[in-house]
Amino acid sequence: MGKGRIMAGWESGGIESCLKLVEEYRKQARAAPGAEKIRFEGVGERDVYNITAPFSADGRTVIAGRVERRDSEESEVWFFVPEGDRWVPLAGAPVFRLQDPFVTRIGGELIFGGVETFPNPAQPHGIGWRTVMYRGAGLAGLEPFFVGPDQMKDLRLVEQRNGGIGVFTRPQGAKGGRGKIGYVRLPSLRDLTLSAVEEAPLLDQFRDEEWGGCNEIHVLSNGKLGVLGHIARFDEEGNRHYYPMAFALDPDTGRYSKMKILAERSDFLPGPAKRADLTGVVFSGGLVRLGDGTAELYAGIGDAEAQKLRIPDPFAEYER
Fold first, then answer.
1. What percentage of the chain has pLDDT greater than the value 70?
2. Domain-embedded: residue 81
3. How many domains are contained in the chain?
């Protein structure tokens, strides 16, 4: 769709608030609780959270996770492999000074990325961030190939079934406010530039006082794109609430469905939080479709731990 206009959603009704979407979610028939904590070893006293879903690399099943001390924002991304009922660091795998990892595959290559933080020259003692991406045949051969705009997290790529690359963006500030999702279709990975990312049209999804972003893109059987993301808000006390959400986008027309909430904090097991204001944070990391009408959602909880939750497959309805 290039730089064309994003068309109206498949469902009408305007932009609904995060609380309205949560209310609609709570009215649905809920699956029996099926949350499970994901245990990590070999990281000392550090937490592992905001993980990817399991993926295949170098012949192994791997999870990438954000590794961080509870009292710090200095983060690294490690790669873990299963060992019994635990996940342990993959020997010899690279370690990146990044936050919130993500993975995909384009042209047979592994695409890995995360959020890089740096001192913000515009704000004394402030922190800036940007998405950086690496590519390679496997983990050991990952090389940097793209650095996104400053102050943009949740930049995601997907190789589309009918050709081209889908790019999902999340500008903040004058264009995106607290954070809104944009989308642009490019002919190939060679066409990925800062200007292409910055000029991506925004989808009309979020109220100005709320925000959200994409976490993982699934190519569906009919070529549509199933988007796993999050929507977030502040409550009256200034606490943050993040909810996993999903929608679908037709890359041929630019039309997209209404967002739907997939889970909330109470669906997961009790556990710690990095700070009191982060207790309600569920950060979508990835999703594994199981082929039986269900899926496993992998998420960071409270910026302090990782869990997975069995849910109805959120993308099945878009393939009918």
1. 94
2. yes
3. 1
Tokens of 180: 């809104």
Structure tokens at 65: 């996770």
Query: Is there a domain that residue 77 lies in?
Result: yes
Tokens of 43: 């990281």
Which residue type does 155 have?
L
Tell me the mean pLDDT in the region 109-136.
Answer: 91
Percent over 90 (pLDDT), the chain: 89
Task: Tell me the mean pLDDT in the region 207-220.
Answer: 98
Contact between 309 and 283 (Cβ < 8 Å): no
Phi-psi region of 302 (alpha: psi -120 to 50; beta: other; left: phi over 0): left
User: What CATH code is carried by the domain that includes residue 228?
Assistant: 2.115.10.20
Given a cut of 80, whether residue 311 has pLDDT beyond it is yes
What does the pLDDT look like over 272-310, one tens digit per residue?
A: 999 999 999 999 999 999 999 999 999 999 999 999 999
Pick from 81, 93, 25, 31: nearest CA to 52: 81
Expressed as residue numbers, the domain containing 310 is 18-34+46-319
Cα within 13 Å of Cα(102), Cβ side: 28
pLDDT higher than threshold 50 for residue 12: no
CB of 284 within 8 A of CB of 231? no
Whether 41 is covered by a domain: the verdict is no
- Other residues' Cβ atoms within 10 Å of the Cβ of residue 36: 14
Give the Cα separation of 320 and 311 in Å (integer). Answer: 19
Distance CA 124, CA 133 (A): 27
pTM over 0.70: yes
Q: Which residues contact 225 (CB under 8 A, 6 or more apart)?
A: 158, 160, 166, 217, 218, 219, 248, 249, 250, 251
Residue 214 exposed, middle or buried by CB count within 10 Å (0-12, 13-18, 19+)? buried
Residue 199 lies in a domain: yes
Cα separation, 101 vs 75, in Å, equals 11
